[in-house]
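Hi R.,

As promised, here are both runs. First protein below:
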Amino acid sequence: MHVCPQIAMAVRQSDADIIHAHNYHSFPLFFAALGVGDRKFVVTTHYHGESTSSLRNRLLSLYRPFGRWAVRRADEVIAVSEWESEQLATDFDVDATVIQNGVDGERFAQAQPIERGRPYLLTVGRLVEYKGVQHVIRAMVELPEYDLLVAGSGPYQEVLMQIARENGVENRVNFLGYVDEEELPGLYAGADVYVTMSEFEAYGMTVAEALAAGTPCVVREVGGLRDWIEIEGVLGLRDISSQAIAQTIKSQTDTQVSSHNPNSWLNVTNQLIQTIYDLE
């Protein structure tokens, strides 16, 4: 639903007291802003500022005046990470409230690890180029003791499978496709290390899920992912060469993470309620 102008009329005709719109990078937020009228308007931007596509970057540049108006139309702007808050201040001169995405901590902490014959690394997400799974696959050459499980589907899968074949690791890279929500916690809990080399993330929900399951993480130190390196059990790296990724993963394999880490993403409900009260 990237383009859905009917949202403007639906919002205008609703009897809601508060309108909460999401995602700067898609038009429904803009159409909600057109229809909000004099109701309280909350915007969660999920903003990462740019795209891996030069065409999309040009479109984002053209959209900037409209997106800026929609964001600044809000009574309250919510960012899901400190990094995103800084980007909003720089790009739109907006003072956002940081409310990190919530995770059902008990669901992941109580998960039974899946059993496999070999230890494995895990990456979860849509299979598109910017998610960086290709870098992890190439690093598997340096990690012969591990399999890599790739949970998710997307248009880049065929390229990723070809990269695995070219690097001689196709027998140790398993593409799981879509994984049911009930199975996902056990998948996290059974992994030795969770890895994401994504280029653009406003937050990094999969990192939160992995930590809740007690699994250490290796992340690319860019965008919203950089906030995670301050958390116990997370290592970041800027060098995404195969050797650097493999070395960082090896340094994480003996890490123990408390699955009940008392980070603010477990208190998201109270933060959101307070934000709404502040609007009154």
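And here is the second one, sequence first, then its structure tokens:
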Amino acid sequence: MGTQVKPAFDSSKQRDGTRQVELEEQGNQYKTIDRSMNRQHLVAKAVRKFKITTDSNHPQPVAPNLLRQNFTADPLNQRWAGDITYLYTSEGWLYLVVI
């Protein structure tokens, strides 16, 4: 059974726990699957619910689009653009700013 648990676990993107791992053989007991997963150090990943972090409908003023999609500039350092994104890591939220 140990050879069946790992492929079943991987096919679920490592998200299924003991009770969700589906094996082809019928009659497998959860204790046996749990022990096999423990021996192989297989731990299910928690699935996080998608959370909206941007509110586009707000009363604050919006900066004007001065470039109007024209990113070419004859003299250097005349037009700059930037963006920010949030990345969730094991340490928590990190901010990535690109200029």
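A quick note on the second one: The longest helix spans residues 2-11. Let me know what you think.

Best,
J.
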